[in-house]
Write a structure and sequence with these properties.
Shape: globular
Strand order of the largest sheet: 8-7-6-9-10-13-12
Radius of gyration: 21 Å
Number of strands: 13
Structural class: alpha/beta
Number of helices: 13
Oligomer: single chain
Distance between the termini: 31 Å
Order of helices and strands: HEEEEEHHEHEHEEHEHHEHEHEHHH
Helix content: 40-55%
Strand content: 15-25%
Amino acid sequence: MSQPPGESLIDLDHLEPVRCNLCGADDTDVLATRSRFDVPLTSVLCRRCGLMYINPRMSSDQYRDFYKTTYRKFIRVKDSVDVIFEKEVLEGKNIFDFSRARLTPGQRVLEIGCGPGGILAAFQSEGMAVHGVEPSLEESAFARARGIPVDTLLLEEFPETGPKFDFVILSRSLNHLADPSAALAKAWTLLGDNKYLFVNLLDFPTQCRFGLVAECAQADHLYMFSPEIARVLLEKTGFEIIKMDVAGDHLSWWDQLFGAPRFHMKILARRVEPKPMERIVFPSPQAIRQKIRRNQQLFFLRRLVRPATYRHWLAVVIKRVFGEGVLTRLKR
């Protein structure tokens, strides 16, 4: 039997176990035993602090190679790099507007996991001095061809020497990093005093309102966050949140049942002194798990009221009773 496409791109025989990246515990509850694209990876929730993560997961060497050459193939992106770039330019404009009050032309801006450089292009057009870090060979080369200075490196390989940055961007990147605490600590080191960090994250419990847990968990999302977890992780690594927008907080009942999925959170934080671990108050893992369960119930209700659900099951019945040929002719 052939493997699912996603599974064939990951070496499942050489996964490595990890402890919780937030509190260091090794005591978890299982959320799901499969992930998106039907890859057999286990998602867990830390019973001490509520952080959600893949465990066991890709080894460090496999993770490095995966992002250099395989990532876009794994997530089945159909857009060309040019299209991704243009979409990122629009996202960059939104980030700039969200953070405008803290930005001044000429400031040094670093994006970690910058892809083809669209976000940085938007900042560059506003007069900022930009720089990027991106492990993908193709996308970092594309950015450089567009005049965006980008190093083809993992964040761990990026040097800490040189002038400090005024603004660091982690947009849709922190989920992918092997050590979020170390990544934020490095961002803290790269920033000047009282300078700013922007983070765009998936709100995983809210995402579960729009899909099964096993579909929302992804092999490339090594960690999954909630607003409470994001706040504690930032406090631990020396960042004070000054502005936070959680898409899930703005969903009306109509959006929850019929609207397009929205489950990101945007955070603007200032570099301060890290909070000692003994002063960290972890969120309730039980409350996070309960939120996931409640959102799964909403997901099933959402599925029941959407016509696409019934079209899907009608197609399944026609295919099984009459064969795929009949279904193909009907679709025409």
